[in-house]
Design goal:
Shape: rod-shaped
Strand content: 35-45%
Distance between the termini: 13 Å
Order of helices and strands: HEEEEEEEH
Length: 187
């Protein structure tokens, strides 16, 4: 009777070990499949670059500009004495005064010419350097934008199978422990 009991016990243990071995192999295969397929969402990125560029151009040209020039004429006085009865003095900016004066019984023509202090305005062309500064600025901004996509149907299935595999593993361990305790050897 002891021999038959041990034989039954040995067969039962072999069945339990086979069940545990198959369960462990199944769980290992399921873990390998889960590790090979990722569950995270894929990200699409969009890059824009930033470039700042400044270009400055200087243009220099000579331009003739009409300018009104003011010239001041200095005050000037001239005198002349002659023995003649006529005398003529003239400038373009002067006043002339002629007088007959007698000296020692001899007539003299006394003539005075005086310039008026004044300013003369005249238009003249002056060459002027004209500088032009032109600044061109270009700016590009780089941004990285992350967009998450929805999971594909097979990824959702793998997530569900992962949770199902954990439940199956827990149930298998509980069943094995329960059966193992039920068949205790009688010693």
């Amino acid at each position: 009777m002891d021999y038959e009991y041990h034989q039954r016990r040995l067969k039962h243990m072999q069945k339990c070990y086979k069940g545990c071995l198959f369960s462990l192999i199944g769980v290992a295969l399921l873990l390998i499949v889960l590790l090979l397929t990722g569950c995270r969402t894929y990200k699409q990125t969009e890059n824009k670059e930033t470039v700042d560029s400044v270009r400055t151009e200087y243009i220099e040209k000579i331009v003739e500009v009409p300018v009104v020039v003011t010239v001041e004429v200095p005050a000037e006085a001239k005198e002349r004495e002659t023995r003649d009865s006529t005398s003529f003095l003239e400038t373009s900016f002067a006043q002339s005064t002629a007088e007959m004066k007698w000296k020692d019984g001899v007539p003299y023509l006394f003539h005075t010419l005086e310039n008026k202090p004044q300013k003369i305005e005249k238009e003249a062309k002056v060459q002027v350097k004209e500088k032009t500064k032109t600044v061109y600025r270009t700016r590009y901004v780089t941004r990285t934008i992350y967009k998450t996509r929805d999971l594909a149907w097979y990824q959702k299935l793998l997530i569900m199978l992962g949770g199902l595999a954990i439940i199956i593993l827990i149930v298998t361990v509980v069943i094995i422990k329960y059966r193992h305790r039920r068949f205790k050897p009688d010693i």
